[in-house]
Amino acid sequence: MENNQRAQWGSNFGFLMAAVGSAVGLGNIWGFPYKLGANGGFAFLLIYLILVVVVGLATMLGELAIGRITGKSAVFAYRDLAKKWTFLGYAGVAAGFFILAFYSVIGGIVIRYMVSFLLEMFKSGAGFLGMGSGEYFGYFISNAGGSIFFHALFMAITILIVMGGVSGGIEKFCKFAMPALVVILLIVIIRSITLPGAGAGLAYIFKPNLEPLSTLSGFFSVLRTAAGQMFFSLSLGMGCMITYGSYLSKKENLMTNSIFICIADSTVALLAAIAIMPAVFAFGLEPGGGPGLLFVTLHEVFTSGMGGFVGSLFGFLFYLLVFFAAVTSSISLLEVCASFFIDKQQLEGKKADRKVISGIIGAIIFVVGIPVAMDGLGGGSIIKETFWFNKWGFIDFYDLISEGILMPLGAALMSVLIGWKLKTKIISDEVAASGKGIKLKAYKFWDICFRFVVPIGMLLVLWGQFLDFGLI
Ligand code: TRP
Questions:
Q1: Cα dihedral sign, 401-404-405-407
Q2: How far is CA 153 from CA 109, 301, 380, in A?
Q3: Atom 10 of ligand 1 has which residue's CA nearest to it?
Q4: 25 alpha carbon to ligand 1 midpoint, in Å?
């Protein structure tokens, strides 16, 4: 009965688009390209891909399997498997809550830039008010009213999609948005690599540079960076893939699906690098990462660099792409939070109202995100100076709780649960449910990943986050 009521994906393709949509997000666009270039180019790429295989893939498979075995979202999935570990589910929901609070503020800025470039196509100055890139960004984030308005708009879109349900909302949107994203990305790549001087950007991202790896501490620093990027980018460690896996039919192959998601996410990250860096270098700009890259450097590429109607057109297309990437991720974050309450009501025998629940949770997350919008992404404000955690802005504070602590700990403990307490047979049995089992050699590989490689990898991430946040 309970399972009959439970939502399911309409098709395996729809599930894949939703899962890849969750994975492909701001992390791929403002994180990967810069880290790739700054940490050794091709050498970083190799390390990153190895980590995806030995840490990311196993965690992905583990999360999807936990979801499908139990048919429940994060909290109840852990409760069913091992009651004492239920806290892992709660940690995931909390992490999703805080990530979405700041993710939505950034999503709002993306909407503003997308609309502005659209306006600029018709009338110069209509979108960015005649300001330069740095000036406009400063103006926008110091204007709390505008930031909050666009944060609200982004959140409203996220809520509306999640209200539509698993197949009628999330899947439907991702089935359209993800292929569209890839097409736009390819168009932007063609423009970017055919610019005169684009070669320097390609060299920046691909040329093997062993310098950052030449010392032991350098090597560890690159390893930490790659590991942290990898697991955030794959949406791991907070029960997101558990939740998406819980809506997946038993006849689908978990192993090929996990491999597809990992390959697709890494490919889009690499394509984003190929789209962004050649253009940055072609116009003689300095590469960077984070909001500065997304909202200042790239703005400059489209305005002072390309310029005119064509610049505005490519600017619009690019921010539309980023918008799709951000929304398909934010809906997965809201779904993790909402599905907890939906499952809770259903398990209590009540009829769960998805619309009401997603609306309320989304509204609360919106409110929690307001301080991020008010303190200019941590750029300094009354709020930053007033609160006890004034060492960081709100965005860093939320990021520390979620990405810094809850997620790596969650992923490490999950692998311990699977590898040591439940034993990895539970995963291989679930993979076999679709009729295709894991070969003995491959099974040994997964077993070692779960028991040793993933916990070590995640502790590395945790250590790296603590260093980055200046806690140790
Ligand atoms: N993976 C997304 C990105 O690269 C962000 C994201 C969405 C996420 N859902 C998540 C990160 C769950 C961790 C966990 O931007």
A1: positive
A2: 10, 26, 24
A3: 235
A4: 6
Give me the pLDDT at residue 201, please: 95
Q: Kindly state the helix (H) or strand (E) to which residue 91 belongs, with its residue range.
A: helix 86-122
Can you tell me which atom of ligand 1 is nearest the CA of 24? 4
| Angle separating helix axes 172-193 and 12-23, nearest 10 degrees | 50
For residue 25, what is the DSSP state?
A: S
Residues with CB under 6 A from ligand 1: 22-23, 25-28, 232-233, 235, 238, 240, 329, 332-333
Q: Which residue has a Cα nearest atom 13 of ligand 1?
A: 235
pLDDT, position 349: 93
273-325 per-position pLDDT tens digit = 999 999 999 999 999 888 999 999 999 999 999 999 999 999 999 999 999 99
**pLDDT classification of 4: cutoffs 50, 70, 90:** very low
Q: Which pLDDT tens digit goes with each residue over 315-364?
A: 999 999 999 999 999 999 999 999 999 999 999 999 999 999 999 999 99
With the C-alpha atoms ordered 429, 92, 108, 26, is the resulting torsion angle positive or negative? negative
Q: Residue 449 Cα, ligand 1 centroid: separation in angstroms?
A: 22
pLDDT exceeds 60 at position 1: no
Protein residue whose Cα sits closest to atom 3 of ligand 1: 25
For residue 29, report the distance from its CA to the centre of ligand 1, in Å: 12
Residue identifier of the C-alpha nearest atom 14 of ligand 1: 235
Judge whether residue 134 has pLDDT over 50: yes
User: Counting atoms of ligand 1 from 1, which one is nearest the CA of 234?
Assistant: 1
Record the pTM.
0.95
Contact 368, 99 (CB under 8 A): no
CA distances from 455 to 51, 237, 412, 417, 431 (A): 12, 12, 5, 10, 22
The residue contributing the CA closest to ligand 1 atom 7 is 329
Query: Above 50 in pLDDT, residue 154?
Result: yes
* Residue nearest atom 15 of ligand 1, based on CA coordinates: 25
Q: Residue 164's closest CA among 365, 344, 327, 354?
A: 354
Looking at residue 393, its pLDDT comes to 77
Ligand 1 pocket test, pick from 110, 240, 402 with the greatest ligand atom count within 8 Å of Cβ, gives 240
Compute the distance from residue 290 Cα to the ligand 1 centre, in Å: 15
Report, as an integer, the average pLDDT of 17-46: 95
Residue 420 gets which letter from DSSP?
A: I
What is the position in ligand 1's atom list of the atom closest to the CA of 237?
Answer: 14
Answer yes or no: are the C-beta atoms of 332 and 240 closer than 8 Å. Answer: yes
User: What tokens were used for 208?
Assistant: 């093997």
